[in-house]
Amino acid sequence: MTSLDRRSVLRAAASAAAAGALVTGCDPTRDQDPDAVRPPGGPGPSGAGHASPAPVRAARPPTRVPGQPVQIEHGPRNGRAVALTFHGRGDPRMANALLGEAERAGARVTVLAIGDWLDEQPAMARRILDGGHELGNHTLHHRDICALPAADAYAEISGCADRLRKLTGTIGSWFRPSQTRRATPLVTDLARKAGYPHVLSYDVDSLDANDPGAAAVQRTVLETVEPGSVVSLHLGHVGTVAALPPILDGLRRRGLRAVTTTELVT
């Protein structure tokens, strides 16, 4: 993608955001009705209907790290790597633009996809994996999982796992709970039941879901990141796309590199 193409994507994304057309990742005040189940087979990135795609090359299976806590917030502090993790939902044009920026800088990221987003945008699973990135589970409908009864919470975890398995052959590398930084013991147990040895938290919150602008996102990340940090970011926000290149440049200047979460902790 040329610089002109990237600017066009950002302008289109900004126009969509102004029109209220973009769905945010982890801002619970902007979520749609959490009980509304979107059926598979919805419009693809072009807006046209689609047939179920052939399975992509298999994603990594759930990561197990002996000696690490069940709930992982960061990796080793004595290394030179960080993990940029993205809550996966939003306009696929922005997702593609963001992944492209990461790849141009030689970075690899972890996308924790929301299951109903994968129903609408199944091609994004292939795009993420083909770029060398990591794919995981961020629940089926992005409900407040820690407030749900056990059966409903398990359905949120296992429902997204089913989508990932259908599209990639595995349930994905990580599970991250929705609308919370840390999982309750119940949700941790349910994640383990669904096949995830660890729950992925984070130690740096970019606050990009509040749309503070690219400069604020960049500043928040670079002022708080440390070696081993797991950074929480979101797809579907134009400011995040614009902030990513200077964030990656700032990490590079400190001798840090962005890797997948599995690479960070293993």
UniProtKB/TrEMBL annotation:
Bias type Low complexity, positions: 48-66
Every NodB homology domain range: 80-259
A GO term, aspect molecular function: hydrolase activity, acting on carbon-nitrogen (but not peptide) bonds
Source organism superkingdom: Bacteria
Gene3D superfamilies: Glycoside hydrolase/deacetylase
Gene Ontology annotations of biological process type: carbohydrate metabolic process
Region described as Disordered: spans on this chain: 19-75
Pfam families: Polysacc_deac_1
SUPFAM superfamilies (UniProt xref): Glycoside hydrolase/deacetylase
Name by which UniProt lists this protein: Polysaccharide deacetylase
Native source organism of the sequence: Streptomyces glebosus
Organismal lineage: Bacteria, Bacillati, Actinomycetota, Actinomycetes, Kitasatosporales
